[in-house]
Amino acid sequence: MVRRGDGRPVARRPEVRLAGLEPWRGGGLEPDGDYDGLAFENADLGGQDGGGARFMDCALTGCVLDETRLRRARILDSRISAPRGVGTDLADTTLRDVEVLDARLGGARLHGAALERVLVRGGKLDFVNLRGARLRDVVFESCVLVEPDFGGARLERVGFVDCVVRGADFSAATLQDVDLRGAAELGIERGVERLAGAVISPGQLVELAPVLAGALGIRVEGE
Fold it and tell me: What does pTM read for this prediction?
């Protein structure tokens, strides 16, 4: 387990090394397909069904993922660069040792997914649904998260580094060794009372004070 200088556990980042990839020849994704050592370059995968497929040692670069169905897929030891799309279905998907770079995704469905050693760096994720997901050793870095839904999710060793978090929902979530101090902006709409197991900065505590008071039923009034 990796620890900071102050002894706190920190998320382990993926170490993705890709070499000698073969270009994907197209033809469309297939449910339960097996994709190993392939480079998907600027492919339009919109509306395709790769449910249950396995992607191993793959690079997906500049791909369009509008309404792409990848439910219950397994994405392993892979790098996803500059994906863009709306309504991508990744429910119940497994991502392990994966880098997601400069994503522009709206309404991505990741409920019930399992993320382990995942780096999300750069880009913007709008209304990502992570309800009931399991995140372990995940880092959100230099990205913008607009109304992310972590409702009922389990977060263990998750870090937020130089990123913007707006309108987050942590309702019924379970947090362990979650470091929010690096968030450049931290806005929590619901579930602030579920932050036990997280560490925040003194400044963030002041900013969250009104939300915390409301969650605890504390009335703040002048004399």
Answer: 0.92
204: helix, strand or coil: helix
**pLDDT single digits (tens) 37-53:** 999 999 999 999 999 99
pLDDT digits (tens, 9 = 90+) for 182-197: 999 999 999 999 999 9
Cα angle 89, 113, 22 (rounded to 5 degrees) comes to 65
The pair of structure tokens assigned to 141 is: 């870095």
CB atoms within 10 A of CB 205: 10
Residue 150, token pair as written in the block: 């972590």
Task: Using alpha carbons, select from 13, 11, 14, 12 the residue that is nearest to residue 157.
Answer: 11
With bands split at pLDDT 50, 70 and 90, how would you rate the model's confidence at 170? very high
Question: What is the Cα Rg of the chain in Å?
Answer: 18
Strand partners, 179: 159, 199
